[in-house]
Protein 1
Amino acid sequence: MPASPANAPNTAEDAEPASSTKSKELDFDRYMRLADAARAAGSNEMALRAYPHALRVRPGEPTALGRLGLSAAAAGDWVMATRYLFEAMLDDGGATPEEAQIFSSTFTRARGEVAKVNVTADTLGASVWLDGNEPPIPKG
């Protein structure tokens, strides 16, 4: 039975997969709408579950990857955010220029949260700071 507003899935897990190509595209659109609505409502956990379902239907789709990355960033999972935003930026198809800019700026912020490396070098040596902390000097 086709989904109608009355019997539409409430979660990504409730949505049943389709078998035909056209039905799979409808599944992709349904998962994206579900994930986008969850993200817009601030329910990042729901969005983080729904976008991967869309990506199973259309693997590597840059808009879904980018929005998954944005949801991960909003949830504070900077490692996941950098991974998916980077993948989204590799393929510029699908996202609007405005959304591509949001992916890029969020990736820059997330990358800074994952790893911060500052290196200062001069003729006497070098100092390396990781994530704002000077590593301990090895004894020996």
Protein 2
Amino acid sequence: MVTVARTTDPNLIRFFERRDTPLIFDHLQRLSDACRRCRFGNEVSDAFLQNYVDRIDHANTDVAGYVQDGRVIGIAELRSLTATWQAGAEVAFSVDAAERGRGIGSALMTVALEQARARRISRVFLICDQLNRPMQRVAEKSFAIMEFMDGDCHAEIPVPLRHRAAA
């Protein structure tokens, strides 16, 4: 497992456990309709979000959150493509709109890739809207191979065998 990545106190990135479900839900619930659409690929209700976080299987999913002053303002979710950890995983992100542009997405990506490496995952996949340039820039910094199709950007990110210096 990856050790917790510290940013600036009292802000840090930490991994969530089952007991942290309310924190994850609170963050996702604060996302605008447009941000929810970007994160989940379609419009989703609060009931969908509650069901989604209640069903997170921590046996094949790691959720890391950027916590600022006790509030989750960004999340990275690393999910195995199968019921158990295998060579491939999907990664998804969300950051509160007011907090974007501060490097939180990049920091979460670094932690997600470190966790993927610790789990012996060789490739991480990310899908985002083709107009979501900030997310694409985060993927590019991680040496993603990107392809655009059907209005989406599909990124395949090789997991480094060891820590890379920040780009």
Protein 3
Amino acid sequence: MQRMRFTVSVLCPLNPLPAMCAMGLSTVIRLRDKRNDPLEIRGCSETALLSLLEMYKSFSPKPASQGLPPLDPEACRRWVRKLLKYAENFLAWREGRVIGHASIMPDQEKKDGEFLIFVDRGHRNRGVGRALTDVALRRARELGLTSIWLTVEIYNFRAIHLYKNCKFQTCSRDDCERTMVYTL
């Protein structure tokens, strides 16, 4: 497995990975994907709404999983705004365009969080999803969460492969989807 190289544009001379934990909105993680193409991962705020909506506007397949992202543009806008308001969000950028989005919706009472991730079709299988997942899991740990869970359609083999490589475990399954959990 090819490891990606990280460069963080904050003062962190020895090890850039801790900076991912304390990732503020001004933190930029610069790395290269499996094809050696540059990308950046940043925290996300309301200011990135239009760029994020642009990614979802051209997202394929529509909807990708469990009705998400919503097909209707106004429903998609409401869904993204809700994520930006209540969740921890991270964006992968390439050449000024959003190519991936990861989100953790924390539940502080249960000390867990729901994980969502979407990567533009042209950038899948290049390590973008793995990088976003790593950043999100580190942030979940910083928030004091004890586990992260997600649901995935049983035929989404590429996503399931990513989650298993990131050490998510299947905890339940039915005819349509499985629930997977990562213990922090």
Protein 4
Amino acid sequence: MSISKIIVWNGSTLLVQDELEAINNHLVEFIRAETYGDRDLYVSFWNGEEASEPVNMGAIINSELEESSPFLLADTKTLYFASKGHHGYGGYDIYMTTRLDDSWTNWSQPENLGPAVNGNLDDQFFSITHCGNFAIFSKQVSVHNTDIFRIATEDLFGPTVAQQQISRQKVALAGL
């Protein structure tokens, strides 16, 4: 499968303009009859003519509440997402999980990114810069105020994990 042929399905289709956009535009969140909770994460693929039926990403990721703002690293295995349903600090928290096979439904247990990112209100829209040195996310700092934050991946994950993430990102981007 070519990454450049992935498409978002959200009731209609959205053609992807480039490969980097494609990496994160084949994941989508919405409500359907077969959801595990209020809003689930799904994946869909473009075969050149049509989008595949969305596939629910499974009960390991999707909880009885809401999941949102998926971000997939270029390695197409490391997923960051926000959830209200996994144990966290409050509201939406940001989690990381790893795809364990090619099914898109078999994931490692989500890991909360901790208090450096998550607070008692809503924290969402996590992404890692193309260079891999920084993570960007939104943090609700009061009921009526959400700000954008940046943290060094080394500060968030530690030097060893940050370097592994950067290496995987660079290798995956080089292969596009």
